[in-house]
Amino acid sequence: MTDYIFKISKLSKVYFGKKILDIEELCFEKGKITAVIGPSGAGKSTLLSIINGLDTATKGQIVFDGKVLDKKPDIEIRRQMSMVFQKPVVFNTSVYKNIAYGLKLRGIPKGEITESVEEILELTGLKDRMKQKARTLSGGEAQRLNLARAMVFKPKVLLLDEPTANLDPANVAMIEKLIMHAKTEYGTSVIIVTHNMFQAKRISDNAVFLLNGSIVESGKSAQLFSKPQDSRTMDFIEGKMIY
């Protein structure tokens, strides 16, 4: 029996009378990387925001690790999740303090914070930048910092909204390596929204194709990208325009 980190049922989101999401059923496998693909406006980012409690669904139910979530998940549940957005957001302090911040909020002892931060700095290639002001980092370095801050407390769930958009190939490769590390070393369940089909094929175990707020197709990535069951999925992954 497959173990799921999220089970979503009869989920809908309506903005100003327009239905943005309409998902009958969707499950995310625990300890796996799931890519959510689809054209702009498909509802991908809205889905992530609802899962993370940044937005609320109009209707529906989300079960997280066996527990039904309220409209706004409590702080302890949200602390088991971490989200990284397309545009890096950094605090106006050092790289080290940016990463340590979330651990301090969780009341982690100082010695453990130092150990955890130094480990993730090494992993992300930012060790020589630890005392540098975070706002002076390059775009790729800032995004690695964002991911480091999200990963340092080894979350159960990592939610990624276009984390490598507009980055150079070297930083894309580094971030993909970090995502794989979170999965294999921490057992983190990863949900990544991406327009990069090559990236989705490279790193995901499962994939979900959203179109106009609804699921067209979902399943194992190897199957979905090589032999999709729906012609619209094939059109999308081949780069054809979809209306």
Please give a structural write-up.
With 243 residues, the chain is of the alpha/beta class. It has 9 helices and 10 strands. Helix 4 (110-124) packs across helix 5 (139-151). It is globular.
Task: Determine the structural class based on helices, strands and strand pairing.
Answer: alpha/beta
Strand and helix order: EEEHEEHEHHHEHEHEEHH
Return Rg in Å.
18 Å
The global form is globular
Low-pLDDT residue intervals, each spanning 5 or more residues? none
Q: Oligomeric form of this entry?
A: single chain
Mean pLDDT: 92
Strand content: 25-35%
Q: How many DSSP E strands?
A: 10
- How are the strands ordered across the major sheet? 6-7-8-3-9-10
Fraction of residues in helices? 25-40%
The biggest sheet, with number of strands, parallel, antiparallel or mixed sense and barrel status, is: 6 strands, mixed
Termini distance?
37 Å
Total DSSP helices: 9
Task: Give a brief rundown of this model.
By secondary structure, the chain is of the alpha/beta class. Helix content is 37%, strand content 26%.
What keywords describe this structure?
globular; alpha/beta; 37% helix; 26% strand; 9 helices
Task: Please give the structural blueprint.
Elements: E1 4-15, E2 18-29, E3 33-37, H1 44-52, E4 59-64, E5 67-68, H2 75-78, E6 81-84, H3 95-105, H4 110-124, H5 139-151, E7 157-161, H6 169-186, E8 189-193, H7 197-203, E9 206-211, E10 214-220, H8 221-226, H9 231-237
